[in-house]
Amino acid sequence: MRAQAKQIRHEEEEESAFVSMTDMTVGFLFIMMILLAFFASQMRDPDAVSKREYDTVVAQRDAFELERDEWQELAEIRAERIEDLLKELSDRDARIKELEKKIEELQKVDPLEAYLAQVAQVRRQVLVRLRDAIRADFPDLQVELSEESDALRFQGEGLFASGRSSLRYDKAEIVSRLAQRLDEVLPCYTLGDASSFNESCNPGFVMIEAVQIEGHTDNVGTDQVNRNLSAARANNTFFAMTNAADGVMQHRNLKQQPVLSVAAYGPDRPVASNDTPEGRATNRRIDLRFIMVTPQDTNGIEVIREALEGIGAQE
User: Is 82 helix (H, G, I), strand (E, B) or coil?
Assistant: First the structure.
């Protein structure tokens, strides 16, 4: 019995020692875990941040990315706008070039138009020259250019008495002097034996087709009487002019026809009112109308030039 009890006590002692060792081991491990936890807390990654800082950085990053996307969108819109503007500028440049081309074409002078404009200008210059010469000879005489600047118009007191076709005695000298002045003007613009063309007096190569002596009346009397009367006045003026300057009939046009001619209009073209004696006296008049050669194309211009140059070569 005693041996059995001793055995049991020995076993109890061994069990007690094992338990003590277990407790010590567990305690030691617990202490080690605490130490490891402590050291782990002291060995934190230096790059680590707090949750608050992390959230702040993330928010800033998101805001930056949003702003970046907005700027990128604006940049794309701006690029599209720039592209549109460049295209618009290109279209405008093309339009400007097109308009400049049209302007250049419009500015190209048509030879025929330029020549006809020069014809009108030269006709006016000739009429002004003739008018000024007559005014110098007769300062009190009322002689003006027509509204179209194509005729000399003798106004004021009539050249003819009412119902008469003969020139008034005191007016005949005017017509004679007019013929002499006309004979001085025509040579540079006509052909024929009396022509004396040169480029200094006629640089535009302009030619006169006709110088028409136009007879006019007032409205007193019948139409038939007035028409016959205006024709008689034109003819009498014609003969007075040719008698005063017989060389005036030597001036020829391009068709080799005499330049000086007559026409009669009766009362159809009054320049003043027939309601007054003064108006009727003015309408009993002679107009000296200049009709110029007006070619239909540039070939006609060349024909005129060659005809006038032929005159110049003969001198």
Answer: helix
